[in-house]
Amino acid sequence: MKRISFNLLASLMAIGAAGLIAGPAAAQNSIKIGLVMPMTGVLGQVGKQAVAGARLYMQQHGDTVASRKIELIVRDDGSIPDNAKRQAQELITNANVAILGAGLTPSALAMAPLATESRTPTVVMVSGTSIVTERSPYFVRTSWTHAQQASVLAGWAARSGSKRVTIISSDWAPGHEAAGVFTANFTQAGGEIVEALKVPLVNPDFAPFLQRARDGAPDTLFVFVPAPQAAVLSKQFVERGLDKSGIRLIGPGDITDDEELPGMSDAMIGTVTAGFYSPNHPTALNRDYLAAFRKANPQMAPNFISVSAYDGMHLIYEALAKTGGNTDGGAVIAAMKGMKWESPRGPMAIDPVTRDVVHNIYIRRVERIDGTLTNREFETFVAVADPTKIAKKQ
User: Which of 35, 183, 302, 379 is deepest in the core (most CB within 10 A)?
Assistant: First the structure.
């Protein structure tokens, strides 16, 4: 065997050493963002919408910010909080994720202590329960709060002739909040709550609750259920004859979710909801967003979940641009506070004190437009902050 010359050996060693240095350096130069979403389970479609919105933003704006490559890692929590906690822990400790994206309320609450302990900025892209952002100083929300929608709708209902309201809501934190805020605001405006009925979250049968609501003879029915259950609700609403009873159906935007609405019957025409986004929102930015989303996801209709995650990625990108790619938790959160931008949903901002979303809430009515059922906005409440946090300041 020929001897390897000293100079050649030295050169090979130098190349190898350079490779060892370059490998970790290249890895450290990337910024990993981990989304913990319910891709399966009872609310699996919610996670699929969120991930589609996040990926669309990256497709449109590239995978580099402040000269650092962005990597998106998606983990399925199966709609189970303990899974979300475990997935978040693995992403932080093993995958070296710098920023997290949180989904459903129970999962976000399970992730909160981890975000605080590790100082990991976490963008809440789905949960609408007010208390979530209070559970960690490293939580920032781009979704919505149920209190925003319910408070606006309660005031509108009272001014629009509703006197006696029955409430049907899912028996979990978001449902409790929506029902509670609606009740407080509606009764303060002089209205009466006939009855508040709680429906099981898993495998719900709305029929007996709808019948009980009808028997109470309210003039208005306020309903809150997760968006994937809206089609079942509408079907049973018609089967129980409530569409012909003269009872007005109202609720947050979830009950006329834009992904489910085209498959519902004309009985939903006239249903009034309070929401922060609809594909029918009349701006050029939204039309461009819709076209891009439908091209990237032909099997899916864009809705309020997808736009919340889309805006979540926008917030992350802009914060990293402001920090020059610095992923320190305190620096990223500071950059996010007070940020304002124009979204497909309209103007929005992050409250610098509460770290919660501030955006328009639209009163919408279901109409058939160009042959398709859709939510048409007819009244706008500008720059609505979370009312439960406003009340705590007073």
Answer: 35
